[in-house]
């Protein structure tokens, strides 16, 4: 039997499309203030917006009539006919944000229009008008949204921790701050001022958000064509990052996600950025609204370009041009000064034998477990382990001598079932993965304190990810302290060198970002990433000891050799099949 849903349920379902979490409210309210031509906007949050989100602006404000109408469905002042959809310059146009917000929270609005004596104050709860009265107010509007999803418990329970919800809000706030440097923007969270951004040019705004360091990294881009005007900054390729940090496209001032245009940026920097690194960019495209469609998704972060391919190539050549102009693309420069300063040799200078300080009290055979400097032991532990590993090289009694390497990629040998072909890279990866998993399960004995902690630059949003998951990092053997614009790594798993540490931390952050909703065990990711990195590569010639070691390690992993059968790194040409075919 078909039933028509009551209106309040239909509204809540529709609202869920636009308002998924506190950050969606922030985005919609800030965009409304921008559309109302505000030059000052203040965002106040309590408990990451779960308790309160307030946006106050000095924009055009609304009349009493409009302030009542704005919460109705399909209420908009931004378009009035279908043709207007082709010339949208405003951020909003669907007339659904405020009605959605009002259906799932408690909203109050205070607003006054220019040349009006009084303002109007409205209170709405779950779409119901509670009160409506005149009030004194400055010109502009102030929305207060309280207890989001109070009447949709399923949604409310779905919200993440305060830190993660705050991270989402920061993301929206930063996107809007970058694309509106002509607006004064303030963010206050739980009574603390987080950002106070004055009206400034784009570069100054980026410096204010990301700190002075970004100044030297930025490279301006600029291109005007009939189809599109491109401006903004890219970060020089040598500063590309191991996490997908600052990647911003704005089309007509609106932040959009575009894997296709991102690819164009990557292509333009081909050969200049390292594998697994992400370039940072703040790219603005101005394009006639009739050549794009933004009405694809309620959140308006996707866009369709009529001439996608052309924009792709214009963007690519624009970035290449800028890289060339600023000498980022390496070229042979014959004008480089080659007069290096070599210190003069002084034949009269006395030569001294090098001085070596010795501790006469040191006794290498002394057993003193209680020494304070105990971590020196752990520094050398890695080498000791390697040597122990080498001893096992004699221990191949079960391995026969029937093996050879084929195409520098496969190990061919036999067991009692038939002929075994093993992919060396995959097999080694499997061994390492299991070894790392073992070590992680006993991480307290496999952790090394660092003499000099490793400092990693990190964005505000990524810092939240780290602080939210600090426990998970500890379980992997990383002791991390959070600094203002960086994190400091004080200890790491013993089997990890410093270089890998940096890379691994960045990729764990990246992985945590992508898996915010699922509980993917991070140690699996960590171990497999490390195993991939350190495994023998295909194409490497192995000597007979190395091959024996590989086979022996595989055998150790499973006493029952039949596990080869089901594995992705090996297959067996069975003796019976050989017999069946060729007798
Ligand atoms: N801060 C504000 N100052 C002045 N007017 C506002 C403000 N916020 C909203 N309005 C008015 O309320 C109307 C409804 O806002 P709402 O956000 O629901 O829809 P929209 O912005 O037109 O479209 P969209 O749903 O795409 O955001 C707007 O069209 C605008 O006229
Ligand atoms: Mg709007």
Your description of this structure?
- The radius of gyration is 31 Å and the shape is elongated.
- It has three domains: 7-199, Heat Shock Protein 90 (2-Layer Sandwich); 203-325, Ribosomal Protein S5, domain 2, CATH 3.30.230; 390-534, 2-Layer Sandwich (Ribosomal Protein S8, Chain: A, domain 1).
- The strands form five sheets. The protein has an eight-stranded mixed beta sheet.
- The protein contains 17 helices and 22 strands.
- With 583 residues, the protein is of the alpha+beta class.
- Residues 331-344 and 367-394 have low confidence and may be disordered.
- The protein is 35% helix and 23% strand.
- The structure holds adenosine-5'-triphosphate and magnesium ion.
Whole-number mean pLDDT: 84
* Overall number of structural domains: 3
Instruction: Give the terminus-to-terminus CA distance.
Output: 68 Å
According to CATH, what is the topology of the largest domain? Heat Shock Protein 90
Backbone structural class: alpha+beta
Q: Low-confidence runs (pLDDT<50, min 5 residues)?
A: 331-344, 367-394
Task: State the helical fraction.
Answer: 25-40%
Give Rg in angstroms: 31 Å
Bound molecules: adenosine-5'-triphosphate, magnesium ion
Named CATH architecture of the largest domain: 2-Layer Sandwich
Largest sheet, described in full?
8 strands, mixed
Q: Can you list the strand order of the major beta sheet?
A: 5-4-3-6-2-1-7-8
Query: What's the total count of β strands?
Result: 22
User: What is the 3D form?
Assistant: elongated
User: Which CATH top level class of the largest domain fits?
Assistant: Alpha Beta
Beta percentage is 15-25%
CATH H level, superfamily name of the largest domain: Histidine kinase-like ATPase, C-terminal domain
The helix tally amounts to 17
């Amino acid at each position: 039997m078909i039933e028509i849903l009551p209106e309040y349920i239909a509204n809540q379902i529709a609202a869920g499309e636009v308002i998924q979490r506190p950050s969606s409210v922030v985005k919609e309210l800030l965009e409304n203030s921008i559309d109302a031509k505000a030059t000052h906007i203040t965002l106040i949050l309590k408990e990451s917006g779960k308790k309160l989100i307030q946006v106050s602006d000095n924009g055009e404000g609304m009349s009493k009539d409009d302030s009542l109408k704005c919460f109705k469905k399909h209420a908009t002042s931004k378009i009035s006919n279908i043709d207007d959809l082709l010339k949208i310059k405003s951020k909003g146009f669907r007339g659904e944000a405020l009605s959605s917000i009002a259906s799932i929270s408690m909203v109050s609005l205070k607003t006054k229009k220019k040349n009006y004596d009084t303002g109007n104050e409205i209170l709405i709860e779950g779409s119901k008008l509670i009160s409506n009265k005149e009030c004194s107010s400055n010109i502009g509007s102030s929305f207060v949204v309280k207890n989001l999803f109070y009447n949709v418990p399923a949604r409310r329970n779905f919200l993440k921790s305060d830190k993660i919800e705050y991270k989402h809000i920061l993301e929206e706030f930063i996107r809007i701050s970058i694309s509106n440097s002509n607006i004064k923007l303030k963010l206050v969270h739980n009574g603390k001022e987080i950002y106070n951004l004055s009206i400034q040019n784009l570069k100054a705004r980026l410096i204010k958000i990301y700190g002075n360091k970004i100044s030297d990294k930025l490279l301006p881009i600029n291109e005007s064509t009939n189809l599109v005007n491109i401006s903004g900054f890219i970060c020089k390729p040598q500063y590309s990052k191991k996490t997908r940090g600052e990647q911003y496209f704005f089309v007509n001032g609106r932040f959009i996600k575009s894997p296709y245009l991102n690819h164009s940026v990557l292509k333009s920097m081909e050969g200049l950025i390292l594998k697994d690194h992400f370039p940072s960019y703040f790219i603005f495209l101005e394009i006639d609204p009739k050549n794009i469609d933004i009405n694809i998704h309620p959140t308006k972060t996707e866009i369709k370009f009529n001439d996608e391919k052309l924009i792709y190539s214009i963007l690519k050549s624009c970035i290449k041009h800028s890289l060339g102009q600023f000498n980022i693309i390496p070229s042979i420069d014959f004008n480089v000064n080659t007069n290096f300063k070599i210190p003069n040799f002084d034949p009269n200078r006395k030569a001294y034998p090098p001085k070596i300080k010795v501790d006469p009290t040191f006794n290498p055979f002394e057993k003193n477990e209680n020494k304070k400097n105990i971590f020196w032991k752990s520094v050398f532990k890695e080498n000791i382990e390697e040597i122990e590993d080498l001893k096992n090289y004699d221990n191949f009694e079960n391995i026969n001598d029937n093996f050879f390497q084929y195409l520098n990629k496969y190990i061919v040998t036999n067991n009692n079932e038939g002929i075994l072909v093993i992919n060396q890279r995959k097999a080694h990866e499997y061994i390492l993965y299991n070894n790392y998993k073992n070590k992680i399960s006993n991480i307290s004995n496999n952790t090394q304190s660092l003499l000099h902690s490793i400092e990693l630059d990190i964005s505000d949003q990524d810092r939240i990810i780290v602080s939210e998951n600090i426990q998970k990092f500890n379980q992997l053997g990383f002791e991390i302290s959070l600094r203002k614009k960086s994190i400091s790594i004080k200890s790491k798993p013993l089997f990890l060198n410093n270089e890998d540490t940096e890379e691994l931390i960045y990729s764990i952050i990246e992985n945590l970002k992508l898996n915010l909703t699922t509980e993917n065990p991070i140690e699996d990711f960590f171990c497999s990433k490390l195993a991939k990195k350190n495994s023998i590569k295909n194409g490497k010639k192995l000597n007979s000891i190395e091959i024996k070691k590989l086979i022996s390690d595989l055998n150790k992993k499973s006493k029952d050799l039949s596990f080869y059968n089901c594995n992705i790194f090996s297959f067996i040409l069975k003796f019976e099949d050989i017999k069946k075919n060729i007798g």
